Amino acid sequence: MEIGAAVTAVKGALDLARNAKDVNDRAQLNAAMSDIMGKLTTAQSDLLDLLTEHHRLIDENRELKSKLSKEERFDQYRLCKTPVGHYIYELKEEYVNEDKPAHAICVKCREEGLRSTLQEGDYSYYCPTCRTVADFQRHPGFAMSSGPTYNDPW
Ligand SMILES: [Zn+2]
Q1: CB under 8 Å to 110, separation ≥6 — which residues?
Q2: What pLDDT is attached to residue 142?
Q3: What pLDDT is attached to residue 19?
Q4: Are 57 and 88 in the same domain?
Q5: What separation in Å is there between the alpha carbon of 104 and the centre of ligand 1?
Q6: Helix, coil or strand: residue 90
Q7: Using CA atoms, how far apart are residues 89 and 110, in angstroms rounded to an integer?
Q8: Quick one: 84 exposed, middle or buried, by C-beta within 10 A (0-12, 13-18, 19+)?
Q9: Domain closes at, from 25, 47, 68
Q10: Among residues 28, 49, 68, which one ends one of the domains?
Q11: Splitting the chain (154 residues) into consecutive groups of 10 residues, what average pLDDT does each group show?
Q12: Which residues surround ligand 1, an ion (CB under 5 A)?
């Protein structure tokens, strides 16, 4: 459905009404009136469809805007590799201030749209939400880091 169809129908009805105003024959007038009503009905139905579509687009726009502002929160972070090869999102220096100290958030939770601040231990970051551990230093007594551990069922 297009706005053009409704405009055309209204214009057609107007033309018919203009021509009909000088018609004296009752039967011709009735026929013209019926045409006019038909065109106006089409226009009304098209406009109702357009209104429905308009509201749907407004809702969709609102939803996308809210998604976008959620994503924008993450623009303040950059993906960083720790010295032992694990990944975290660190708050960019330009966003560090009195109210927002330097910190990192969880890579796994970020993928799910959550901003989960990592707790810092002696050797690792720890996510209190999904329990992901990201090492930034090798644990003493371990020759190799075992990679990030997840709380997944497997
Ligand atoms: Zn997490």
Answers
A1: 74, 77, 89, 116
A2: 57
A3: 86
A4: no
A5: 11
A6: strand
A7: 9
A8: middle
A9: 68
A10: 68
A11: 80 88 86 91 92 96 90 92 95 94 96 94 95 89 58 56
A12: 106, 108-109, 116, 127, 129-130, 132
83 and 137 Cβ atoms separated by less than 8 Å: yes
* Cα 41 to middle of ligand 1, angstroms: 57
**pTM for the full predicted model:** 0.54
pLDDT at 3: 75
Residue type, 52: T
CA dihedral 40, 44, 50, 56 (to 10 degrees): 180
CA of 107 to the centre of ligand 1 (A): 7
Q: Distance from the CA of 105 to the center of ligand 1, in angstroms?
A: 8
Report the pLDDT value the prediction gives residue 96, as an integer from 0 to 100.
95
